Hints:
Layout: H1 4-10, H2 13-20, H3 22-37, E1 47-51, H4 57-65, E2 71-76, H5 79-91, E3 99-104, E4 117-123, H6 132-142, E5 143-154, H7 161-170, H8 193-202, E6 206-219, H9 225-232, H10 236-243, H11 247-262, E7 265-266, E8 270-283
The protein binds S-adenosylmethionine (SAM).
Amino acid sequence: MDNQLQKDMWNGRAGASWVRHNSLLEELLSEPGRQCMALFDLPASAQVLDVGCGCGNQTLDWASRLDPSCTITGIDISQPMLALAEDLKSANQSSLQANVSFVLGDASESMFPEASFDAIYSRFGVMFFADPTAAFAQLRSNLKPNGQLGFVCWQSPALNPFFTAPMQAALTVLPPPPPAKPGAPGPFGLSDRERTYSVLSEAGFTEVTVEPLKLELSAGADRSFDDLFQELIQIGPAAALIAESDPALGEQAKTAVYETLGDFYAVGKGVRFEANFWLVSARR
Ligand SMILES: C[S@@+](CC[C@H](N)C(=O)[O-])C[C@H]1O[C@@H](n2cnc3c(N)ncnc32)[C@H](O)[C@@H]1O
């Protein structure tokens, strides 16, 4: 099984949206990334891989925390997202300590020599594999003996109004998309805790832990709702549904989403969404 659909998506509309809204997404999502970083117990001169690094924000965050004897490599299938990652690297060079490099490629393929890394990290970048067990087995082989895998992913849509509130509003106007198969590649690809245990165990990992993390995501405290809405309406599954719909119905759906998202906004506080994640750790 290959990941061509995801390659098309992340080199197309989804990648363009993440590039365009990078600052807002980073404001919303930096905390789960930080909490995932805290899982790691790194050796001296650590070699770290950031899987599905996207626009590189987390890779660069690692590089500002690690010392110059360390290296951090970000890998991603999205050319436009990696282009922004390179720009951000250049713009933030003075704050970077560890060596940073970005690689364009599919992390589920044999991109690196066996046992290259002490740690493999990912914020929301490992839920898109067509064959998760094979992909994690590949990543495991990239780890040194006893190396650590740590990632953060979304729990079920029902526990994450950041996705479901705009979608439910859009669906009051638009026909629903075909139902996604449980565990299909996508933001909720690893939302089932038991399945994540079995995928990682079957891939050969040991000491697997999958712990819940509940946070409030917030952004835009100094922005008006209308200003924030112009960005929020272009992010996530509801945005994709609206983009593919009849334009007149799409406009009605945007109005419905506008009304719904207003409930998540307060002047001086911006938008706030309760969010539920899995923090996952495992050893080679
Ligand atoms: C939701 S985004 C997260 C990006 C980044 N980690 C962040 O948190 O800002 C998912 C990322 O995973 C990447 N991705 C999906 N499948 C991949 C694969 N097989 N190999 C490498 N990257 C992949 C996408 O291109 C995208 O950049």
